[in-house]
Amino acid sequence: METELSQASIQVLPPEVVNQIAAGEVVERPAHLVKELVENSIDAEATEISVDFAQGGRYVKVTDNGLGISPADLSKAFLRFATSKIRTSDDIWRLSSFGFRGEALASISSVSKVTILASQQEQGEGCRVVSHFGKLSPLEPVSRSRGCTVIVEELFQNVPARLKFMKSEVAESGQIKHIVKALALANPQIAFRILQDGKLLYYWPSVSQKERIEAILGVKPLFEGTAVRGRIKVRAFFADPHQVSRVSKNMWFYAQNRFIQDRSLQAAVMEAYRNLLMTGEFPYAVCFLDVDPSEIDVNIHPTKSQVKFVNPQDAFRAVQGAIREVLVKAPWLQEEKNAITYVPTSTPSLADSFSLLTSAPPSSPMVRQSSTVPSQPTPLMFEDEAFHKTQYREKPEVQFNFDIQNQSSFPVNETKHPSQQESMEITSTENAFSATKMFSESSSQKPLVRHWSLLQVIGQANLTYLVCQNEKGLVLIDQHAAHERVAFERLMNSWQGHKIPIQQFLFPLPIELSEEKMEALRSRSDAFLKLGIEIEELGPTTLGIKAAPALIKNKILIEEIERFASQILEWGDADLMEKAIADICARMACHSVMRAGQSLSVPEMQRLLEEMDEFPLSSFCPHGRPVSVHYSWSELEKDFGRRV
């Protein structure tokens, strides 16, 4: 065999073989064919595009009202590397079009029957040409208005090996729908008409960018944000964390308006929603990256579905920033009609977050009720009341016309003093909790939107959920999740203000890491110092921790450093320090606040609602779980048969 191979002469492959090889890259599946044809229509400045497909994409018809093709150029369109988009190699680095290689039609026509009807006249004659598996027919005159129609039939009929690798008709059709949605999302100025088997599937008229995205994603309202990092600008449209998907395909990315797939940018979106989503939840987001042509390479993938950035970390930060900077303001709460703005005279200290510990739950669940809302929130009792005392400006009393009776016969367990509770598991040191008193947050005097404190507290259900109401219906609040968010936000604020006490280790705490992870962390000691963590190398694969925040358990510290190293290897270090802080704070908050099953008095419940108003993202715990569940009065009336 080796002798036969060594004696074989080098052959120049015939054009039909070359085109079929190229077709295997450019037209990997029918959806890629549709993408190439629609992008040609967009490049031709079409304002109306119609896509009709059948048989899972083995039949495709794309019609547009673009510039058309002249009779002289119609036959050239089927030649490989024939294009009107570029002239020199330098043009590749300043592209303003989707197509540029001149391969698509040549590749498609080699594995199918292709018919093109084109005209450059508003009214009058055009031309038609047919390529039957690469063999061109003579031009024929036809009557049609300006634009172009491309009909692809019998796809892969002459390549049985490719045909058998096509997925089911349903799967291929689903991918085509995904591609046409992606193209329509980025081109709201174009009216799209999508048909399957001759029946209208979608019609998207020419509208604004936001309206087009809302129509295709089926999600309202969407919020908009922008950010610039380096030479990359991002404009993002996204939904609030209440509206999520179970799949990641509802995150869409565009570079120079070109639909791309990029795992790093997906990670940037997920990072923007950090501490707002549960595991397995994905947001709705559409991100447009505007990049200097010299900063991006679009010629790295046969289907042009991937790009390479000169500075990928800037792309990551820009996407993350465009979304996160809006999310942290919780705009979905600010749009509510009943929101009232007030200003606190001072901000509670961090220790307040850990002082709602109460007595152990009784043997059976209970409900505690109150028919009034106090006009002034009653501060909770702490070990050092003078230190933790908080004052608020007077707020108007909230009254609701609901018939709720105060059933005083229900048993009531008074809250015990915090000193009677079991010590909290924040760190292995006994004075960890008292250490939190060493730093209290100063007043920001920032106007806050009243949302939670407007609720009327009815009582506590199952010693776990606060039962509240407003004019819209009932609201159940998970006391642990709510308090966890409050504690988490205060920990984050304290870390950012460099108010975390640091403990020095008598001997460095060793961590065994792989050589790759050691290399990832080797040059980032300054970044760790921002966390209050001092590290040194003890060996080729051993990292030593000389100092760390007093509130962090050693186990948590080791796990987070290992996770941080893994993320650097996978995504780079873009904004990962803040994520590391958030992960640690989320763990600390979870293990140090009130639990389900703890009894709360009405003033304590009211105080928790007041604290929730201090932080816009109080709708979610740091792990993304929802804090509240709402039941409208109309839902209850239907359940009770009072409304049909």
Describe the model.
The protein has 20 helices and 27 strands. The strands form 7 sheets. Strands 1, 2, 3, 4, 5, 6, 7, 8 and 9 form a 9-stranded mixed beta sheet that branches. Strand 1 and strand 2 form a beta hairpin. By secondary structure, the chain is an alpha+beta fold. The protein folds into 4 domains: 15-204, Heat Shock Protein 90; 209-328, Ribosomal Protein S5, domain 2, CATH 3.30.230; 339-496 and 596-639, 2-Layer Sandwich (formyl-coa transferase, domain 3), CATH 3.30.1540.20; 502-590, MutL, C-terminal domain, regulatory subdomain (Ribosomal Protein S8, Chain: A, domain 1), CATH 3.30.1370. Helix 3 runs parallel beside helix 7 (169-185) and helix 17 runs antiparallel to helix 18. The model is unreliable at 343-445 (pLDDT under 50).
